[in-house]
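Pasting as-is:
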Amino acid sequence: MGTPDLLALSLGLSVIVAALGWAGGRGVERLSADPRLRDRVWAAALILPALPPLAVSLLLLTPAPVREIAPPSAGFTADLVTSPIDFVAVAPSAGPLFDATASAWALLGVAILLSLVRLAALALRARRLLRIIDQAQAPSPAVAAMVEDAARHLAIRPPLVRVSATAPEALLAVNPLVPVLRARRAAAREEACDALALTGAGPEVRRAYARSLIEALRDRAGPQTSGGLPALTFTGAGRTTAMKRLRAVLNPAPAAGRRSRLMACGLGSLIAALAGAGTLAVAAEREAVTIFKAIAPAIGSKPAGLHMGRPDTAAEAMRLDEPLSTVDQGTDTRTLLNGAPLPEGLPMWAVAAGRVDIRTGETGVREVDLILPFTGRTPVSVNGRRMPAGFPASGIIGGAVERVDVVGDHVMYTLKPEADVRRDRMNARRDQGLARMAAGSAQATLSPEQQARYRNPTAREYQALCASSDPGDDGFCSGVMFAQMQGRSLCLPADLDHGSDAVRAAALSDLVARGKAEIARGPIRSGDGPGDVARAALARAYPCNAAQADPSDRAVHSRPEIVPVNGDQRGITPADAVDVSQVQADKPDQGPRAAIAPAPSTESEFLAERRAEREAARRASPNESGLRLPGWPRPDRPTSRDPFAYERRAADPQNRGVPRG
């Protein structure tokens, strides 16, 4: 919730607390007639309704809570589910008829207007009172001396700052129960003052005091033609209140006992605790500052942060060059999708963005633009809402998908609830931790020589390890290749995923043999690492363009996949190229579909413009951050990100004479 919603809820909570305070005050009046105890109880009941708005306002001054959203890497984990029903076009639903934010602003406007009216009325009353005081005669010295003596006797000092007790109540003028609480507290306060003034007085004095109150009532009710003033502090305008005050003057109530005081204290503490719990519940609804953990660019080198159609804003854009870079989205941020507002029903944590641009728009609003690296032609719906034309079938993160239905050529996604997505991510982090523990245990079984040989090898060293006959070297070479098997430019044999264990083991052995052969005769470019060498070797061993010649030798999983064309990532086409028309609704058990490689499609205008801008930036600034110059960094020298950089520098022969600290 935003600020207006929280303030409106705090005002509603103030009304509830006022009702609880009124009920508690009435309960204490039934327990004890002591005016002093009742005065304290009604004073607390008058103060408590102001706590929720005050506490929520102060909490809004503190930093907003942080909510991290870390989307997993792009890909699909849900299987395609064919549906026998006919396709029904789903139009975007209309917006809600009740706008909570607009209602909150309306309530706040009414509250501010009533507070201003109340403050203006108080100012007018104060002005009239000052005019009457100026016209009044000065008191006689005897009366002034009597008042000063009574003040000294009662230990009453004039206040340093004079503030009307009704001025703070004007801020809660929208609360209809505040005037009721104020009247109850004023009546109890007058009875407490009467009891204090008549302490130790006899019956005659009490009857005389009661007669003076009755005369004040008559002066207040009758026409004021004599110029006199009624008792300014007499609040017994109501008949019931006046009779209660007169009875308290003539027959004073006994002091409250210890039990009554404890019960009143406990009741007040309970109401205060309920008010605090409600305030915390309202504050917990505050809109969090979203920390969007963006995935690094999935295609090509690190692209410049250029706004769609506005290349002149490149300097204003923030580039996310590192994996899982944190982006403070803020509370007043627009989320865009390829330069357009995010479609309704599509949460940002479900978008498989290849790049994220952050900028401040022309209106001063911060914008997070999720750039999709592909452009598709397949109709896509998400949670029953049709996505705009050009939205790719690969634009939804696999970890956010609960169900995928394909009807004809239409791909319909059903997303998981956010709680399920968060749970899956926690499980994935736990699985990664277990994998690291297993890798650490396996590394501990290696000899020190093997650990040194497998620690951060260069591309040439990895090529030599793959050519070695040592079982440890063979395992390391195979492990690096296995880590690259999820690449999009690979079309691996179907036997790796299907068939018996013997068939899968044979296919895996063939993959290792073909990969080693390609590594041995393949070129090594400057700056390549072991992963780059293994990925390039597998791409040469299993090119995707071979699927056109022999479709039965390639596997396409039963879910939308990105099929590269001719091994070139720039020509990647979305999953709409897969012939979904071959899915027969009346044959749900026909098994996985065969791969049909699409014809190379023309590149979208958006990607062509981005590629041209990157090439222009690369030619204009050859040493720009994020670009790699030829021959740098040297493959045989550790970079600053190498975790074993210090060990390798210490082992360098030219550093042997450097003293160790």
